[in-house]
Write a structure and sequence with these properties.
Length: 169
């Protein structure tokens, strides 16, 4: 998804390698925002910048479905996060975004416990309030799933406070 020869912002993408014209990042860094759900799952932030982002996960037994392969919800979570972060990466003033719509095509099983999967998000188009992205989930050199998503930018990140004040709205 990353064009050969283009540059990542060095402070956001300090470590990776190029294979077949695609940048694959390898070193995890702290997430730019606290997301307890992702921390609990063990998701790693690899980087974001210039309309692209990558996250990774080393699969554990708890990430498997009843067939002992990656649960589809895990695949969709990684794609959702990578695309949302890609959309936010071009404008540091955006504090958060929410998924408005997401479509995912599963091409093969995501992997088994012990495998490391990487989700790559890329911005296709953005406006002042919305962003349209694509994402890919890879297990080594195998494309596992592809997604398209629409995200709405938020100017504030205190949505939980608003919900608590208006529990029935």
């Amino acid at each position: 998804m990353h064009a050969a020869g283009s540059e990542f912002e060095e402070w956001r993408y300090p470590c990776g390698h190029v294979t077949g014209g695609t940048m694959t990042l390898t070193t995890a860094h702290p997430f730019p925002v606290d997301i307890p759900f992702l921390e609990d799952l063990g998701v790693e932030f690899l980087g974001m910048g210039n309309g692209e982002a990558q996250v990774a996960l080393t699969l554990e037994q708890r990430h498997m479905n009843s067939w002992h392969v990656t649960h589809g919800g895990m695949t969709m979570t990684l794609l959702d996060v990578a695309m949302a972060m890609a959309g936010r990466s071009e404008n540091p003033e955006i504090q958060a975004s929410v998924t408005v719509e997401m479509k995912t095509s599963f091409m093969q099983a995501g992997g088994i416990a012990g495998d490391r999967i990487i989700a790559k998000g890329k911005t296709l188009h953005r406006s002042t309030t919305m962003c349209f992205c694509e994402g890919e989930l890879w297990n080594g050199d195998k494309l596992v799933a592809k997604a398209m998503g629409t995200f709405k930018y938020l100017k504030r990140i205190d949505a939980a406070k608003k919900i608590q004040r208006n529990p029935r709205n």
